[in-house]
Amino acid sequence: MIKTLCALLTLSTGLAFAQSEHIKRLDDAAIVISEIMATKDREIPQDLLNKAHCIVIVPGLKKGAFIFGAKFGRGFIECRKEGGIGWSAPGAVRVEGGSVGFQIGASESDVVRACPKFGYFREKIR
């Protein structure tokens, strides 16, 4: 009984930590889009947002390279509902990649992408 209780507490602590990590990442994505839209000279044009079927937000995409390069980031995607009115619940996305060549450096940036075609993501999500 005590072993079961300890295992359950350990599992619930791990789940609570994972849940809080997702909530923090979702809050970071909301902050990124809010900051971009608040900056008048760099905001996303409203007509582009009106045409977009999906928006991908990856706060803190990390890139690093020394001959071999890598990038990694986690964020969220939101797509318009079927009728084009309103947005879906956010879905988690992960960006990964690598490269080879003459390169050196590191960076971290916030990525926002407005995607005009819905079909691509519909196929990838399923």
Which descriptors apply to this entry?
single chain; 126 residues; alpha+beta; two-stranded antiparallel ribbon; 3 helices; 2 strands
Total of helices: 3
Tally of individual domains: 1
Instruction: Report the radius of gyration as a whole number of Å.
Output: 19 Å
Indicate the structural class.
Answer: alpha+beta
- Write the H/E string, N to C: HHEEH
Oligomer designation: single chain
Broad shape: globular
Biggest sheet architecture: 2 strands, antiparallel
Please count the beta strands (DSSP E, at least 2 residues each).
2
Share in helix: 25-40%
Task: Report strand %.
Answer: 35-45%
Q: Please, what is the average pLDDT? A: 77
Low-confidence stretches: 1-16
Question: What is the distance, rounded to the nearest whole angstrom, between the alpha carbons of the first and last residues?
Answer: 41 Å
Strand order of the largest sheet: 1-2
Tell me what the structure shows.
This protein is an alpha+beta fold and 126 residues long. The protein has one domain. Helix content is 40%, strand content 40%. Strands 1-2 form a two-stranded antiparallel sheet. The longest helix has 37 residues. The N and C termini lie far apart (41 Å). The N terminus is likely disordered.
